[in-house]
Specification:
2 copies of one chain form a homodimer. Chain A contains 14 helices and 14 strands. By secondary structure, the first copy, chain A, is an alpha/beta fold. Chain A folds into 2 domains: about 140 residues, Aspartate Aminotransferase, domain 1 (Alpha-Beta Complex); about 240 residues, Aspartate Aminotransferase, domain 2. In chain A, helix 4 packs parallel to helix 11 and helix 5 packs parallel to helix 6. The longest helix of chain A is centred in the last third of the chain and has 26 residues. The interface between A and B is large, with 82 and 83 residues.
């Protein structure tokens, strides 16, 4: 009798189903489909010539090291170089405050593994990054959502939730926020809110996990100090990555925080993948110390600003007046809100029939709502495809509008 | 008041402590110390010139893809190429039977995450690979050890344990075995035992996880068909890796098994690290399809055979008659057994004082025994250093021998 794998799964594995995006991306394989769904950077932003030169250099000079196992915490010289860059914005730390992760997703996984036992509570934004919700769910985390407005997470509601949970005797492990150009909502937490979230975190004795992949991709306005840089009590864990300022293919990201937590994460990471590719780390290190990151960011910002503009003007041109959308000052994403009676999950097949794809909003909402929303990304498609994709999508939506 | 991170850890994270090897390797930083501890391949086995050429080619032709995110399951062409190689030894599978992992350690992590809820039982060999035990512990797995002899895991004791556990109403999720040149013990499971373990697994309805990193590093004797190739009921999960036949720095390994399990693992991997570096995957793919793997394995086997011989003859020359050791026909490791009254954990500091390092055996034993054993590796140090290291270690041991 063949083995029935279902009866062998762990409790948590049994509950983990294929994500909506995962299933969607399979439908998007057809080259006729214009995808406004994925969050892949534009390959035009990859500094290919520099990476080629660097890679050759690394393999010329350092192959015995570059192709070997390495330490779980990551290359000290890479961690130092990242620390120097972060310090320019007031994000201070020593070598023991930082660990290299295999992409930011591993950072999120380690956050889940470090803090969450089944039933433990984490506060997340409504909506929030789908793959972070998945990582926290995969450890049995119970996610409590706090809505956002144009200034980010609503601090009045956050405090209310924390009081309610405290009164019920529930311990909250951390508050998860994507402080800049949030995925999916595109909004940025204001300085006042950043100060307030720290005050609240201290009052209720809870960690803040600040996920910050898009900070440097700001199209307009002044940078706002990170929550990590504003907090002085070692209770912020900050996640950063090379994926959006260099390229995602290397899978090099970092976690900055409390030395004790970083040490625990290193122990857990060792059981997870031993170490991150040292070849990738050496390439990221050489690029970091060349001092070209700022320059590359500038050229990336130019590319993405044009694409954001293309999407916003296409939305104005092709979407019905019943639709509203965020107008992000940076990052990769726009969230569109449609009338209550439209379910973007149901509408998805019609969009695919018109050869355009997006991500339905519901999976981003820890409270199971958001059916009327959708995430559109302007990072990967060309400006022409953005215009054409929005046009097609506008047509699909207009068919659903009731008069 | 500063945050007290200890009170925030998950139940499982609280229990995860730095491994013995981790702490040991810190002591081994001193270049005076000859380390017989680590399991790093000899860099002389890395085909550096080929990797250089391949990497340049990949970045010349395919940079937009190589530096991008990729699918969680891994590149189809790499998976196909691996399947073709595996099929030569009767390890058959289709594309849905294989997933790329970020090193074999991620394979072990995914095995733990897929199958083990806290308290679930896995059977392991006594001794077994430390980092596998850690991965299983990190999900709360309860590990039941079965001793080995020179033919591998003792099938009579395995069956006995399974009967006992069944009688207690306990479900066993899988049997974990390193079938070839076991880490740390160096022994290989005989063909008769392989057939028997399949029979037992079927009888008791339990998965077998066959970890097989060293299979191709056979110094003498004929290859034995893998458990995966002998089993016809989809209940073997097989782990393989490029780390020992190409280089570990790419972090490219694979998991071969039951399509349902592989699909579940892909869902879990997505929450863990989204995808494995596509640059690394493309390098591994190009190398795989060049057809040079067999040739590289041959030259690696030559190198490691000489080193194994150097270690065995040094042991014969320098170790006291009270010590016994395995004489592995492949792989990286020798296990030495000393008289009962010697605790290799306690003796470790004396060895470091003599500038030689090894790994004390106890952490490899799921039953907490093995204090009188130690793991020695001949993979990384030069033949001269193997001889000198064993000489120093012999001196340390002789001081502890009671007359």
């Amino acid at each position: 009798m063949p083995i029935n794998s279902g009866e062998f799964y762990s409790d948590l594995a049994s509950k983990m189903e294929a994500s909506a995006i995962r299933e969607i991306l399979k439908l998007v394989q057809n080259p006729e489909v214009i995808s406004l769904a994925g969050g892949m950077p534009d390959p035009a932003t990859f500094p290919v010539e520099d990476i080629k030169k660097i890679t050759q250099k690394v393999l010329d000079i350092n192959s015995a090291r570059a192709l070997q196992y390495s330490s779980t915490e990551g290359l000290p010289e890479l961690r130092k170089c990242i620390l120097e860059h972060l310090a320019k914005d007031g994000n201070n730390g020593e070598l023991e405050n930082i660990i290299i992760s295999s992409g930011s997703q591993q950072g999120l996984d380690l956050v889940g593994k470090t803090f969450l036992s089944p039933g433990d509570i984490a506060i997340v934004e409504l909506p929030s990054y789908l793959a972070a919700l998945n990582a926290f769910h995969s450890y049995g985390g119970v996610l409590v959502g706090v809505p956002m407005d144009e200034d980010g997470m609503r601090m009045d509601i956050l405090e209310e939730k924390l009081i309610q949970l405290k009164n019920k005797g529930k311990k909250v492990k951390f508050i998860y926020t994507i402080s800049n150009f949030q995925n999916p909502a595109g909004v940025t937490m204001s300085l006042a809110r950043r100060k307030k979230i720290i005050e609240i975190a201290h009052k209720f004795n809870v960690f803040i996990v600040e996920d910050n992949p898009y900070e440097k991709l700001r199209f307009e306005g002044d940078p706002i100090p990170s929550i990590y840089s504003l907090e002085k009590n070692d209770s912020v864990i900050s996640l950063g990555t090379f994926s959006k300022i260099l390229c995602p293919g290397l899978r090099i990201a970092w976690i900055l925080g409390n030395k004790e937590v970083i040490r625990k994460m290193a122990i857990l990471k060792q059981a997870t993948d031993l170490c991150t590719s040292i070849l990738s780390q050496l390439i990221a290190y050489e690029y970091c110390q060349m001092g070209k990151i700022e320059e590359n960011i500038k050229s990336n910002v130019k590319i993405y600003t044009r694409k954001r503009d293309a999407m916003i003007s296409a939305l104005e041109k092709h979407f019905p007046k019943e639709a509203t959308w965020t107008n992000p000052k940076g990052g990769f994403f726009v969230v569109v809100t449609l009338p209550e009676y439209i379910d973007t999950g149901e509408m998805f097949k019609e969009a695919i029939a018109e050869n355009v794809a997006y991500v339905p909003g519901a999976p981003f909402f820890a409270d199971g709502k958001g059916q009327k929303t959708m995430r559109l990304s302007f990072c990967y498609p060309s400006e022409e495809n953005i215009e054409e994709g929005i046009k097609r999508l506008g047509k699909v939506i207009k068919k659903r509008i009731k008069n």
